[in-house]
């Protein structure tokens, strides 16, 4: 049934990478040159993050970002049909032992992730690591695309949990001594009365959700920020950088401060691989 429901995406997914990248190049031309999709937002964010860069440098990063952005979309669709051995050939994990050492000691792991690299490919990590793996997500209002993304993300045994159920579910696992690796994207802009803390991020007072820090503390998880280096189209190298070995030893503000600082350094290193199309600082006083 799923094949019929998502037939157009399965057709795309079975295409070889070289064919997908031809479509991606066409999409880039339309997105960047014709439609100018969110170009003002992207350039505004880049100017805020890199005030010392020239207009030429900003435009160069923006153009590289749009190329990556289009590639990333089709690479995500490829998750529907890609074979595990091809993932392992295209996705190199640099320092997996940092995680396995904690798992051997029956310690939970929190992957405090961001919209960096091709974050959708992080759902393939269970191919390299035998662990109960969960990711929290905010359901999309469009049920068709919401179900499509769940299908892609759960293909390699990642369990997708709606964010509003995440705390209760992960606490239940912890209370039942089920060791797990839990993935939470931490760089969204908090809405309304959501639990949030502010920290300095690219020289701006920036709001962050407190949920990941709260869960990590309650489950006394080791926290890592994963980040990706793009080797070439369709090939990535994944790194894990430690934030804290025992989250219970820090308060939520400390965790968010460390996360924001490490994420900023990653973005500075690979600026074209970060998602610049969202109005990250709109609720923190920046006018778009």
Structure description:
The protein has 288 residues and is of the alpha/beta class. The longest helix has 23 residues, at 55-77. It has helices spanning 2-5, 7-13, 17-35, 39-49, 55-77, 84-90, 97-104, 143-153, 163-175, 211-218, 252-269; strands at residues 91-93, 109-113, 132-137, 158-162, 180-185, 196-201, 204-209, 222-232, 235-244. The termini are far apart. The strands form two sheets. The protein has a seven-stranded mixed beta sheet with strand order 1-9-8-2-5-3-4. A two-stranded antiparallel sheet has the order 6-7. β6 (196-201) and β7 (204-209) form a beta hairpin. The protein is built from eleven helices and nine strands. The relative contact order is 0.16. It has one domain (2-284). Keywords: Acyltransferase, Cell inner membrane, Cell membrane, Membrane, Transferase, Transmembrane, Transmembrane helix. It holds the Pfam family Lip_A_acyltrans. It is found in: Cell inner membrane. One of its GO terms (cellular component) is plasma membrane.
